[in-house]
Amino acid sequence: AQSSVTLYGKVDLAFSKATGTKDKQIADNNASRIGLKGSEDLGNGLSAFFKLESQLAADMGTTTVAKDGSSTFWNRWSSVGLAHSKYGSLQLGHMENGAWDTQTAFDPWGGDTVAQLRDVGATLYNDATGKVTANRRLDNSVRYDLSMNGFKLAASYAEKLGGKSNPFAIGGNYTMGPLMVGLAYEKIAKATTGQSDDRIVSGGASYDFGVAKLMASYSDGRTVADDKVKGFIVGATAPYGAFKFKVGYSQSKTELAAGGNGTFKKAAVGGEYNLSKRTKLYADYAHISGDLTTAQDDNKNAYDFGLSHAF
Amino acid sequence: AQSSVTLYGKVDLAFSKATGTKDKQIADNNASRIGLKGSEDLGNGLSAFFKLESQLAADMGTTTVAKDGSSTFWNRWSSVGLAHSKYGSLQLGHMENGAWDTQTAFDPWGGDTVAQLRDVGATLYNDATGKVTANRRLDNSVRYDLSMNGFKLAASYAEKLGGKSNPFAIGGNYTMGPLMVGLAYEKIAKATTGQSDDRIVSGGASYDFGVAKLMASYSDGRTVADDKVKGFIVGATAPYGAFKFKVGYSQSKTELAAGGNGTFKKAAVGGEYNLSKRTKLYADYAHISGDLTTAQDDNKNAYDFGLSHAF
Amino acid sequence: AQSSVTLYGKVDLAFSKATGTKDKQIADNNASRIGLKGSEDLGNGLSAFFKLESQLAADMGTTTVAKDGSSTFWNRWSSVGLAHSKYGSLQLGHMENGAWDTQTAFDPWGGDTVAQLRDVGATLYNDATGKVTANRRLDNSVRYDLSMNGFKLAASYAEKLGGKSNPFAIGGNYTMGPLMVGLAYEKIAKATTGQSDDRIVSGGASYDFGVAKLMASYSDGRTVADDKVKGFIVGATAPYGAFKFKVGYSQSKTELAAGGNGTFKKAAVGGEYNLSKRTKLYADYAHISGDLTTAQDDNKNAYDFGLSHAF
């Protein structure tokens, strides 16, 4: 029962250009962070644990300040909970929602870098209202996690706070040898009574052939305005010594409730070179197209060349 | 003389309801925090030390931002000082005032949870002007601490800053076997010249009978508006294996300088179950009443059920 | 390749009075800070490293909040980079510019305390426009460092961001036995097209005679308004057991482009007593004079008496 705090983190910076701009920048695209975590064995398979994690933009040394006069310094995670070796863990606080991991598992870039496909193919997107900001992290929430025989489950439920309904998210995946399948459902709190809830269901699978891992996922959502959004991601990663290559394509199709529809496409290719288990160099290129992008022809591409170091 | 920084903290969250509202929430009522501290032996009984402590609201991951464009991240404590094994310690910085510990020592809840009695029976309170915010922590202050033969003393003196007088606070307590007695005086800086200073003197005692510890304290204060405030706390705590039960009652009576007076009452009961030395579950219930509360009949009660984990 | 994070810092507070005011305060004049750093050996002389450093004002527990709604918590340094044992290190992020160390090396106070001479003799200063805020730290910058055979080089290049040119700074110094010589050039980004860049070149030398170390430096700069600024510092430090005494004089002369000129002078004396390698007491006195100070006769002096503890 002695104190054992682990201080961990990641600093990741890249020379990069985003879509929709001609500016080339040094940018923190991959959420540099520091965190504290610890757990205490309470006996009988029970343990108590906490986790505090803070994101920073390492290109400027900044952290987040909320508009209401408080700083969400621990903006990635702040929780305390109890875990049982068999029955899973229950925690309270500000946490990533239970669907996130499964939604992200079938993106070759795992939601990182300018090449990530998750932001097109596994998110509610609507040209008329702009991208729906997913409740990636939920304030004042309860989260349950279970990991058992290759099966992983995470479920989150949160207070309404300013919204009109309770955010809820659940995701699960099952790994059997080279195969992984996953399914996730996320309901985002609506802001106005009488609306529907933003909601999205996503399913996917990956198979590791050794020489390469193939993956695909499909998402089907509906916004508060009753616009229908369907998206998919297909991709592959291939290790080659210390290298890992990535390629993928994603698409999102929106049918507006008011009539009309449009498509948003993203294709990407990239690679990383692992200097160690904790440190890597990476380079990526992505191109967007479709009816729903307002980017000009000459800035529909994005690239990055970066260094990531975890500790 | 080598570096030895200790990283410590607490994460504490509860399902709770406060008085004056019907909202049931996940709330951080007990000041989750992280801190850094260290000391260095300089020889001849002398040592140098520092302490930095930051509070967070773990339900949302937020820390405090002040209105003047600075973030009081180290809002609980930031100091550097010298300590002598015999003659006590002297430190400079942003610190808890010297009266706080003694004012809080005779509250069965020690100033924590929705059941704390300190906020009624050991604080300046005035229905006409609202609760006087005690200068719990003093900016730009000097603090002296002495601990000797069961006797503990703490004294603080601070710059005026925006105020018109220097905040000053002193508290002392003496422990002899099962008996503890304490006395504290706190003068809060007045904001306007010509006013009196907010000030409060508190005295109390506790006796540990083994099966239970009884405690009582009395406070007598006067606000800048010359309203007189008298309060008391009576309470008991009783250990029972890994359990600890708590019960108490506190009252505050205000005589307005302009004439008229009123009473504010709080009764509370609670218990905690220690899962380890560092981790506990707790539950509390409190009820307020009296002339000075504006809470409606149906929300004069408060409760919490929480988990607290220190590291 | 295992994790090895070092948590380090300094807390430094003083009773002090600045020039231009009669207020005596408890003040944090020397940048109290906490930091995290670590490096990982990648083999073949290569290593990866990161550094995150946050300044605090320990008299109030505050950190910096920027106006744009972000908190520059890691305001002193946030970077990630690769280092080679022979060819130096390259890092990206928010960092001190490459000229700073050399500019500061010939100030007996190293840019610290109210007695520092750097702020007069090695900075662009102009009574008409006020002191030019040097880009001490550069956002979105690249920095190269090389240390070899007594020779040290640091160079920084940064994005324009809001400015109209790219900040650039380079500094180098060479140490041979008791002698050290240094040269630095800094170009600060201009805010408006058509202006010149703020720029300053500084050179200096120090010689350690054992009983005392003598040092002198000269700076020559030009502001965006084409005002010419020339400054110098002369000083000495002398160790005596656990004591170290410091004395120095600096001067800055400005020729306004619009005609007219003026002089700013600062003389200072001080001493420190090292309680250990990490902890010291210090006292300083400084006096300013000249055409360019608007301070009244009775507040042209400054002093401090402080405690500094590093961990």
Structure characterization notes:
- The structure is a homotrimer of 311-residue chains.
- Chain A is built from two helices and 19 strands.
- With 311 residues, the first copy, chain A, is mainly beta.
- In chain A, strands 1-3-4-7-8-9-10-11-12-13-14-15-16-17-18-19 form a 16-stranded antiparallel beta barrel.
- Chain A is globular and about 60 Å long.
- Chain A starts with 5 loop residues before the first strand and ends with a strand.
- Chains in contact: A-B, A-C, B-C.
- Chains A and B meet through β3, β4, β6, β7 and β8 of A and β1, β2, β5 and β19 of B.
- β6 (70-71) of chain B pairs antiparallel with β5 (63-64) of chain C, so a sheet runs across the interface.
Shape verdict of chain A? globular
Q: What is the overall pLDDT average of chain A?
A: 91
Domain count of chain A = 1
SS-based class of chain A: mainly beta
- Low-confidence parts of chain A: none
Spell out the CATH superfamily of chain A.
Answer: Porin
Note the beta-strand portion of chain A: over 45%
Order of helices and strands of chain A: EEEEEEEEHHEEEEEEEEEEE
Which strand order do you get reading across the main beta sheet of chain A? 1-3-4-7-8-9-10-11-12-13-14-15-16-17-18-19
How much helical structure, as a percent, in the residues of chain A? under 10%
Rg for CA atoms of chain A? 20 Å
CATH architecture of chain A: Beta Barrel
What's the end-to-end separation of chain A, in Å? Answer: 25 Å
